[in-house]
Amino acid sequence: MKVIHSVHPQDFRKYDTASIRESFLIEDLVQAGNINFTYTHYDRMMIGSAAPLQETLQLGNYPNLRADYFLERREMGIINVGGEAVITVGATDFTLQKLDCLYIGKGVQHVNFKSIHPDKPAKLYILSAPAHASFPTMLSKKENAESNSLGAMETSNQRTIFRYIHKKGIQSCQLVMGLTMLEKGSVWNTIPPHTHDRRMEVYFYFDVPDNQLVFHYLGEPGETRHIVTKNYQAVLSPPWSIHAGSGTSNYGFIWGMAGENIEYSDMDGIQLNDLR
């Protein structure tokens, strides 16, 4: 399992392109027929995927966790970005269509992932954060999630935000999770940008068309950089960093956070004129 360490903002100013990609970008996240995780030292968040084909995949354990099983001291959020899936939690089956979300609380020992149609395989994006309390396993369908529209076509950022795991939605210990879909003709996300001094965030880009890209922006507001990303890639955002992006086409992205609270609105806004 890949491990990514924290970066100090003053050190970040000296990074070249290769160093930035190594420290913040997770490139080969979705691996067909496998479960794959990256462990980060940003609030101990784990970023992963399960991409079952014909065989059912079982959530295993990792020596890094020093636990008897994966969710012994962790919680997990899962959003499906592929074909129809069945996730078995203990003895209960949950069916996820594309863009449905499943939350699994601390203390669950057995989790399995299956594609209902192997020719249209599921692609399950997973976030896991440490948990000191246990909350019930809950499924949220996309159509039942809290949502609102932001932006405008005139500023190329018309988008709809869907909130799944948050203070007014699925209850969790510290995990916050949802997704944003951009309308055709819109390419900018999270504009104007912000930071989260009390928690980290990670973006996972999906539905990026073939041969198209998303330029993800990060760094301190007065010292920004960018990472060129492709479909099914994730980017880490430390508490001191902005997180925004601009694509060569419209796309979707899943956002997830962990830290001191589960207040979706806990953010420190940045004026566009203050960006450098």
User: How many domain regions?
Assistant: 1
From the N-terminal CA to the C-terminal CA, the straight-line distance is: 35 Å
Quick one: overall form? globular
Structural class: mainly beta
Rg of Cα set: 18 Å
Q: What do we call the CATH topology?
A: Jelly Rolls
Mean pLDDT: 96
> Which parts are unreliable, with pLDDT below 50 for 5 consecutive residues or more?
none
Side by side, the strands of the main sheet go 1-3-4-11-6-9-12
Helix content: under 10%
Under the CATH scheme, the architecture is Sandwich
Q: Name the CATH superfamily classification.
A: Jelly Rolls
For this structure, what is the CATH class?
Mainly Beta
The amount of beta strand, in percent, is: 35-45%
Number of helices: 2
User: Care to count the β-strands?
Assistant: 24
User: How do the helices and strands follow one another from N- to C-terminus?
Assistant: EHHEEEEEEEEEEEEEEEEEEEEEEE
Largest sheet: 7 strands, mixed
Task: Give a written overview of the molecule.
The protein has 276 residues and is mainly beta. It has one domain: Jelly Rolls (Sandwich), CATH 2.60.120.10. The protein contains two helices and 24 strands. The chain has a seven-stranded mixed sheet, with helices on one face. Strands 2-21-18-23-15-14-13 form a seven-stranded antiparallel sheet. Strand 19 and strand 20 form a beta hairpin. The longest helix has 8 residues. The mean pLDDT is 96.
Summarize this structure briefly.
This protein has one domain: Sandwich (Jelly Rolls). Helices cover 4% and strands 43% of the residues. The protein has helices spanning 9-12, 17-24; strands spanning 2-4, 25-26, 35-40, 46-50, 57-58, 74-80, 85-89, 92-96, 101-104, 111-115, 124-130, 138-140, 146-150, 159-165, 176-182, 188-189, 194-195, 199-206, 214-220, 223-229, 233-237, 242-247, 252-259, 268-269.
